[in-house]
Write a structure and sequence with these properties.
alpha/beta, twelve-stranded mixed sheet, 348 residues, single chain
């Protein structure tokens, strides 16, 4: 297993007109972070040196031109581009979006090839990244195509973990996306992630109802009784500790979530509104279900405060911590899985 400082954390820089560069550099101003990992920022050292003056960062940057030049104990910046970029904080600029994607795609390729161990992504603007070469709603969809497995957005804050049956789907289309195959896949992805990524041997999972009051026995919509409940019943009978369907309106406020290792919501806002309320800006977005590890902060580009030295970097720092923790957990799980338990020899 790698020593802590040799775990290479790749970082895609995100939208340079947002708060991404600020939260990244502020995270690594603390030299103790360099004892936990070796960061590699996919950007340009001159660009970041210029930006860090805006928020008076004390981070010392080490520019490199290829990944063989990575040094431990340094904030490495891989020069992904050489061009000068016209930057203006708070502006939605498609040119800046192109550089965000250049950083992300290059970092993803390094993740696939094993040149970095984990990937932490700074926020992008989902509108200005669109082009003929990149037609994805965001990071997760691209990673799902490029990596092995089935991606699932799992929001994490300490022991609070919230996954989704559907993510970036319009509310009026959510019910039509819910199938037996989808529900089973999402629950199984969460269960496996809890085991290998969070070292929970027998995870307990709660599933929220789609409709108000989980359908009230079919009075308020049929989906809970006809689609969701039968799948969960089958999985429970086969040994998966999954429980349903809890009315979403009282599940978090009553503290019921504390009894479970993860909660699966039916749609985006049903899960993320309570999660972000409870996580107080320290939550992390983890892409579970893939063969590689990617995390990100739970916030966006925050154009309104970009360049004003006001960004809270706690969520990004937590994303780095979580990526490292999951990397270690996966290695331990792999080690345990390949070593059968030794039985004592019987003596006649």
């Amino acid at each position: 297993m790698k020593k802590a400082e040799n775990i290479i954390v790749g970082i895609s820089i995100g939208d340079l007109n947002g708060i991404g560069s600020e939260v990244v550099l502020k995270t690594f101003e603390d030299n103790r972070m360099l004892e936990l990992c070796t960061p590699v920022i996919f950007a340009n050292v001159k660009t970041l040196s210029f930006l860090r003056k805006s928020f008076e960062s004390t981070a010392l940057l080490h520019g490199i031109d290829n990944l063989s030049q990575i040094l431990t104990g340094k904030i490495n910046v891989l020069n992904v581009w050489r061009e000068n970029i016209n930057l203006e904080y708070g502006v939605n600029d498609p040119v800046v979006g192109e550089f965000a994607i250049k950083s992300f795609v290059t970092a993803t390729n390094a993740l696939k090839s094993g040149e970095i161990d984990v990937l932490v992504t700074a926020p992008i603007n989902k509108y200005n990244i669109q082009s003929e070469e990149f037609k994805f709603p965001g990071h997760t969809d691209y990673l799902n195509q490029e990596l092995e497995g089935n991606a699932l957005m799992l929001m994490v804050k300490d022991n609070l973990r919230v996954g989704l049956l559907t993510d970036h789907v319009p509310v009026n289309e959510v019910a039509s996306h819910l199938t037996e195959a989808l529900i089973k896949q999402k629950i199984e992805t969460v269960r496996q992630s809890l085991i290998q990524d969070f070292s929970i041997n027998k995870p307990k999972i709660a599933v929220l109802g789609l409709n108000p009051h989980a359908g009230d026995g079919g009075v308020i919509g049929k989906e809970d009784e006809m689609i969701i409940r039968p799948v969960i019943k089958k999985m429970f009978e086969k040994g998966t500790m999954v429980f349903s369907q809890y009315p979403a309106d009282r599940f978090f406020g009553s503290g019921q979530y504390e009894k479970y290792d993860a909660v699966i919501a039916a749609y985006h806002d049903q899960g993320l509104v309570p999660f972000k309320t409870l996580s107080f800006g320290g939550g992390v977005n983890y892409t579970a279900g893939l063969d590689k590890i990617r995390t990100s902060p739970d916030h966006g580009t925050a154009y309104d405060i970009a360049g004003k030295d006001k960004a809270d970097f706690n969520s990004f720092k937590e994303a780095v911590y979580l990526a490292i923790d999951i990397y270690n957990s996966r290695n331990q799980y792999a080690e345990i899985s390949k070593k059968p338990l030794k039985t004592k020899e019987k003596h006649l």
